[in-house]
Amino acid sequence: MKIFKIFANQYFWVLLIILIGLLVRLYKIDSPIADWHSWRQADTAAVTRNFIKEGLNLFFPKYDDMSGSAEMPIVNPARFRFVEFPVYNISVYPFYFFFGVSDMYSRLVSVLFSLGSIAFLFFLCKRYLGVFSSLITVAIYAVLPFNVFFSRTTLPEPTFLFFSLGMMVFVDRWIWPACNASRSDAGREVCGILGFIFTAIAFLIKPWAIFFFLPLLYSVHKKGIKGFWKKFVIFSFFALLPFLFWRLWILQEPQGIPASNWLLNGDGIRFRPAFWWWLISERISREILGATGFVLFTIGVLIKPKSGNYFMHTWLLTMILYFSVFATGNVRHNYYQYIFVPVAAIFFSQGFLGLIKGIPGFLPRFWTIILGLLFLPLSFYFSWTQVKEFYKINNPVIIEAGKMADKILPKDAQVVAPYNGDTAFLYQTNRSGWPVTALPLAELVADYGATHFVSTARDDKTNWVLRHFQVLEDNPKFIIADLTKITIPLNGDPEP
């Protein structure tokens, strides 16, 4: 009898799903940061590594890149990295401190946050969809290939999503105390406090936490108590204060704030045919849900909720708003859609369950069950055919060259590691410097303190370096040269 009680316990299944989610996320957990979107991963990981190398200073996070934009190539010699408040990096720091710097620990922390997101998604769905539907939803969410890959990257997104979903769970329970595990005022206050903390942290990490906050306005509206709006506005104001203070703080070092206006509609792609093609056809239909999964998702969207509560549909609309506002960012970078996956999994599961239960006025239930059971595994297969390429190391040579540079160069070396502006190569050297030679090398040496040159390309600039500077390592794959030691005068041989 005890075994049946265990199987009947909803939390047994949640824990089992989380365990499965952990196991699939351990695939290539020790992979170096040279896979898909390695440039952004390297920038994030470098901040934590520099906390170890230079001291933990949360208000002045630094990465390895000393360069700036194409118009102003050298604008950040202090290497400030003022983007999100380094909550993720703080979480990785203890692993680095006690066990040593390793990319595996950065990935592991992301995995742990993503597992917490599974739990939060279950509790959120449980209130609106019921236990069984919620279990199906989180099971799908836990193993979607797109979600699995980005849940173990060294990006702030898994941490951000954890706090955003936690914000939704706790604030929604604060709004609706009758849905709390405890109906007491004390239980509601606890949810309010936790909601406040998660809201503040979510916005500190990324301002587009607003797109998770907007559905909560629907909850307040649905509550229908006018006096509660005042309380909610006060709650929101104080929860946003840390974000406002952080944004005011970083303005004192504008060179450390990457350009971001282009994310909105920098190339004018918003609502153009290419915008819809990239987001719907390539990202949502192929990478995230697979072709058949998108069919299930669409069916789920069209099914009217039995409760008459459109909280989930409101959430979906805010995600569409997110795509529209940050149009260029979403088209150029597919990791921007990572925060869309929870709501995608919700309607994916509702579409699947709709086919299993049968849809009045549609095909006979016999056929809808067959379609549901066919579409579900095909969705994962189609998605995996796209996502499996993300795990591949794009250029293994940069890892080999980086290890050699780290071995033979002084710890305080400032390295020029040209890689089309991609900092993944510079990160592998474990040194600060420049991922592009936007200025002449002689100028980088004289004015900005560059000391060494590392390259995996045998282009004109590399050959010029070989002719004029002392070479420390020269093999068919890469070269390492000392820019402080000239072997042949530069006169008469201009730098390409």
Automatic annotation (TrEMBL):
Chief subcellular location: membrane
Locations listed in the record: Cell membrane
Gene Ontology terms for molecular function: pentosyltransferase activity
Swiss-Prot/TrEMBL keywords: Cell membrane, Glycosyltransferase, Membrane, Transferase, Transmembrane, Transmembrane helix
Protein name: Uncharacterized protein
TM ranges: 6-27, 105-124, 130-150, 159-176, 196-220, 232-250, 284-303, 310-329, 335-354, 366-384
Cellular component per GO, a single term: plasma membrane
This protein's record includes keyword Transmembrane helix: yes
Keyword Metal-binding appears in the UniProt entry: no
Topology class, membrane: Multi-pass membrane protein
Domain of life, per lineage: Bacteria
Organism: Candidatus Daviesbacteria bacterium RIFCSPHIGHO2_01_FULL_41_23
UniProt-listed GO biological process terms: lipopolysaccharide biosynthetic process
